[in-house]
Amino acid sequence: MDRVALRGLKARGHHGVFPKEREEGQTFIVDLVLGLDTRPAAAEDDLTRTVHYGIVAEEAVAVVEGEPVNLIETLAERIAQTCLKHEGVQEVEVCVHKPDAPITVPFDDVTVTILRSRA
Fold first, then answer.
1. Distance between CA 53 and CA 34 in Å, rounded?
2. Among 15, 49, 87, 101, which is most buried by a count of CB atoms within 10 Å?
C-alpha cells in the first residue's frame, strides 16, 4: 500500500477535560498518513484517481476546530473516520499532538497515535 502523508497541520481547538482548556482553547497539531493505491492516479496523471490531500487537510482542521471533546483519543478517532470517508483511502494513521497540555512538569509534546482501516 502506498502512503500520502500530511504533517504538521495546525488548528486551534477547545478540547480537554479542564474548564480552562474548553474556554481558552489551544493549538493542536495533526499528522496524517493515508494508505491507498496511487498507481491508477500515476498511470493517468489524474487527481480524480487519488485522494485530494488539500481537501483532507481542510477536513481534519475542521474537526479540530469543531465540536469540543474531552480526550485527544476521541479527536484522533473523529479525524480518522473523516479520512476513511474518502474513496480509495484504505487505512489512516492519525497522530494528534497537544504541545500545550496542562502538565505540571517540563515536557516537549503529548501525542496520541491511532491506526484505522476499512477492514
1. 9
2. 15
All three cell numbers of 106, joined, read 517540563
Residues in the chain: 119
User: Would you give the distance in Å from CA 28 to the centre of its chain?
Assistant: 10
For residue 23, give the nearest of 32, 11, 15 by alpha carbon: 15
CA–CA dist 8, 61 (Å, integer): 11
Residue 39 is which amino acid?
R
Give the separation between CA 30 and CA 98, rounded to whole angstroms. Answer: 9
Q: Per-residue pLDDT tens, the chain, 119 aa: give them.
A: 999 999 999 999 999 999 999 999 999 999 999 999 999 999 999 999 999 999 999 999 999 999 999 999 999 999 999 999 999 999 999 999 999 999 999 999 999 999 999 97
C-alpha cell at 4: 500520502
Catalytic amino acids?
A: 98
